[in-house]
């Protein structure tokens, strides 16, 4: 079970890196961004791919995999943004107290959860594809170590939270 957790974590990091590689390519035709990078993408995968020292050919393979899977992810991303906008609109001016608004928000939140689950499944499939088709055995071993390190950091953070020694971040201004 622990090995699977490590594999899943490495694959998660790899997908994030692939997204960052795609985002780092800059805007696509017409000045529009392409790939899955951008706000919220995080540096995790990009840092991992950097640490794995991918060759230019491997980077091209990752980009091809990401582009091939973009069509499956785009409708999910669009629906998630539409749901987010609908939640913001429904709760404008403190309207959440209204039971009808609460019910609408609950429905939208449930839809969002289903969409997020579908995105996670797709992401894991893509990560598996990158892991098995792009990385060398040495890179896979390094990725496993990076995944183990990430799991250890998460477990340390969870332990701090359980002990009450984790301080919340300051409020955003």
Structural commentary:
- This protein has helices spanning 2-24, 44-52, 56-90, 99-133, 137-163.
- By secondary structure, it is mostly helical.
- The protein has one domain (2-153).
- Helix 1 (2-24) crosses helix 2, helix 1 crosses helix 4 (99-133) and helix 3 runs antiparallel to helix 4 (99-133).
- The longest helix is centred in the middle third of the chain and has 35 residues, at 56-90.
In short:
The protein is built from 5 helices and no strands.
Task: State the distance separating the first and last CA atoms.
Answer: 42 Å
Instruction: Supply the helix-strand structural class.
Output: mainly alpha
Number of helices: 5
Query: Helix proportion of residues, in percent?
Result: over 70%
User: How many strands?
Assistant: 0
How many discrete structural domains? 1
Q: Could you tell me the mean pLDDT?
A: 78
The portion of residues forming beta strands comes to under 5%
Shape: flat
Q: H/E order of the elements?
A: HHHHH
- Biggest sheet character: none
Cα gyration radius (Å): 19 Å
Which residue ranges are poorly predicted, with pLDDT under 50 across at least 5 consecutive positions? 4-11, 16-44
């Amino acid at each position: 079970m622990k090995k699977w957790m490590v594999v899943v974590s490495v694959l998660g990091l790899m997908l994030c890196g692939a997204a960052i590689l795609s985002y780092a390519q800059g805007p696509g035709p017409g000045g529009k961004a392409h790939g899955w990078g951008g706000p919220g993408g995080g540096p995790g995968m990009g840092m991992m791919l950097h640490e794995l020292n991918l060759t230019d050919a491997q980077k091209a393979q990752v980009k091809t995999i990401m582009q091939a899977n973009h069509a499956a992810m785009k409708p999910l991303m669009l629906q998630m943004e539409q749901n987010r906008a609908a939640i913001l609109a429904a709760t404008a001016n403190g309207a959440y107290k209204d039971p009808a608004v609460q019910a609408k928000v609950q429905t939208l939140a449930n839809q969002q959860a289903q969409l997020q689950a579908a995105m996670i499944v797709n992401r894991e499939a893509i990560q598996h594809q990158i892991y098995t088709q792009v990385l060398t055995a040495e890179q896979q071993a390094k990725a496993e170590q990076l995944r183990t390190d990430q799991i250890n950091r998460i477990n340390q953070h969870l332990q701090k939270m359980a002990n009450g020694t984790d301080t919340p971040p300051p409020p955003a201004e």
